[in-house]
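Known limitations

Structure tokens in this collection are predictions and should be treated as such. Users comparing against experimental data should check residue numbering before alignment. To illustrate the layout, the record for Threonylcarbamoyl-AMP synthase is reproduced below. The input appears on top and the generated tokens appear beneath it.
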Amino acid sequence: MAELIPIDSALERALELLRGGEVIALPTETVYGLAGDATSGTGVARIFEAKGRPRFNPLIAHVSDWAMAERIGDFDLLSRKLAEAFWPGPLTIVVPLRVGSGIHPLVTAGLDTIALRMPKGFASTLIAALGHPIAAPSANSSGKISGTSADAVNRDLGAKIPLVVDGGQTPVGVESTIVKVENGRVRLLRPGGVAAEDIEAVAGAPVERGSGGRIEAPGMMTSHYAPAAAMRLNVDAVEPGEALLAFGPSRARGGARAVLNLSPTGDLREAAANLFSHLRQLDAVGAATIAVEPVPFHGLGEAINDRLARAAAPR
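Generated tokens:
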């Protein structure tokens, strides 16, 4: 297992490892990230190795301030407006990559764009102290359930990485929203911790959806976030032996082997925070299938349904 250090005493050890080309797991406001120096080929390669991640799948580069972001990416006026509204926070913006940015080519998977985010808390402090951006996809084996606690990360990746920084449960619970501005319009590449409605309010126009099947940013693979169990979505009845991922006060018909409720009151923010931890717990009961009650699509429900659809996709 990896070394587990509380967040308030982990900075120096984390810096030592990153400077040596190692990768570490650390908490962000969304989920735990598997972090390496985004300018280090060794560090970035170790991210892919630890996750078992396909190298055509790009990574998000995380920055600590505007100066670092502008050294890496070229921001148009609308991208800048979105960043000023939501950074630091759970929004990732895809922008053209600047020549001489120092970002290792593995981070962008050969694209001429870069996905940038400015996180809060420990990750921001660490990036500032390092002086380089960090690449940090979710801290989980590729395609599997994202980690929202240090214990979940250590059980999954602890044999492959030297350090997990323990910051407790992550508050948002799903990965960042990813957007890209094209021809003055905002396109949603991945729903996440910032609702599309909030982005539309800042942009002053509807957010467009659809990627044409291209992988332009992390989290766009069809099968992703998957438990070992099969999944059945939008159920109104539970089959014998199934586990049930519930939502809200009303239950699907039938008796489930185990039940966890994302939010008994129907609060989508609470549901997002609980999504991955509840999936992990239900997967552990050994049921062949996890049945999932319907979750509304508005607000953070769009991100929740996106993760559920990818978890249920053919593998």
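For this record: The mean pLDDT is 93. The radius of gyration is 19 Å. Please report discrepancies through the issue tracker.
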